[in-house]
From TrEMBL:
Protein name: Glutathione S-transferase
Species of provenance: Hyaloscypha bicolor E
Repeat recorded as keyword: no
Tagged with keyword Hydrolase: no
Family per similarity comment: Belongs to the GST superfamily.
InterPro entries: Glutathione-S-Trfase_C-like, Glutathione-S-Trfase_C_sf, Glutathione_S-Trfase, Glutathione_S-Trfase_N, GST_C, Thioredoxin-like_sf
Top-level division of the source organism's lineage: Eukaryota
Residue ranges of domain GST N-terminal in the record: 4-85
Example of a GO MF term: transferase activity
Alphabetical list of PANTHER family matching this protein: GLUTATHIONE S-TRANSFERASE-RELATED (PTHR44051), TRANSCRIPTIONAL REGULATOR URE2 (PTHR44051:SF3)
Length: 223
């Protein structure tokens, strides 16, 4: 297989494309990011790449695949490029437990954190019941992760190593201070979810996560 760069269609601020970038960095896969204007995502040219008209999407010239949905892209990247299984397991039950956590991230973390962001930042009216609902859901997700990590006593979600499932949570977690602004401190994450907090800090120190943090800053400042 050739080693031409993958095109990642992304956006400076949105967390989902950066989630894919972390995996590209981890696996040292050559890639280039095309930053899209939100206004172009629902146009036919982009909908050909992702029928849902959202980023991320990728085009891989090495295999000719075009793919949307961050979870599916991550599974494709590890299946195709993680030949040493550095971020995966090959056998049951771990292989499927990693998928369990990725699905939880895609269905439980991403959408609820996204709705919290919407009702805190963008909805034209301030609706207390909606804001409370999604803040409570964020607390619930943090609690699920914290309880799992504390009950297993492990450093990562599955087995003894960091997998793509752990990494898939990072970019939405990074958004929490922005979502709640001055009120973010009321979550008291370190005190209320200590195992989650330690896990998150561990992930934040990985070179791949540091790198995309810097790339995101650059993209946001237009450099
Ligand atoms: N389930 C999708 C969600 C993608 C998503 O919501 N992307 C945001 C940016 S982070 C987006 O494209 N928003 C534009 C829009 O809603 O029109 C995934 O995980 O890839």
């Amino acid at each position: 297989m050739s080693n031409k760069p993958i095109t990642l269609y992304g956006h400076a601020t949105g967390p989902n494309p950066w989630k894919v970038a972390i995996i590209l960095e981890e696996l040292k896969i050559p890639y280039e990011t095309k930053y899209m204007d939100m206004g172009d995502l629902k146009k036919p040219a982009f909908e050909k790449l992702n029928p849902n008209g959202r980023v991320p999407a990728i085009e891989d010239p090495n295999t000719s695949i075009t793919l949307g949905e961050s979870g599916a892209i991550i599974e494709y990247l590890v299946d195709t490029y993680d030949t040493t299984h550095s971020l995966t397991y090959t056998k049951s039950p771990e292989k499927y437990q990693v998928k369990q956590w990725l699905h939880f991230q895609m269905s439980g973390q991403g959408p609820y954190f996204g709705q919290a962001a919407w009702f805190e930042k963008f909805h034209p009216e301030k609706i207390a019941s909606a804001r409370d609902r999604y803040k409570d859901q964020i607390k619930r997700v943090l609690q699920v992760l914290d309880k799992h990590l504390s009950s297993t006593g492990k450093e990562y979600l599955v087995g003894d190593k960091c997998t793509y499932a752990d990494l898939s949570f990072v970019t939405w977690d990074m958004m929490v201070p922005w979502i709640f602004g001055d009120e973010a401190g009321s979550l008291e994450i370190e005190k209320n979810y200590p195992s989650y907090h330690a896990w998150n800090q561990r992930l934040m120190q990985r070179p791949s996560v540091q790198k995309i943090g810097q790339d995101k800053q650059k993209a946001m400042s237009g450099k």
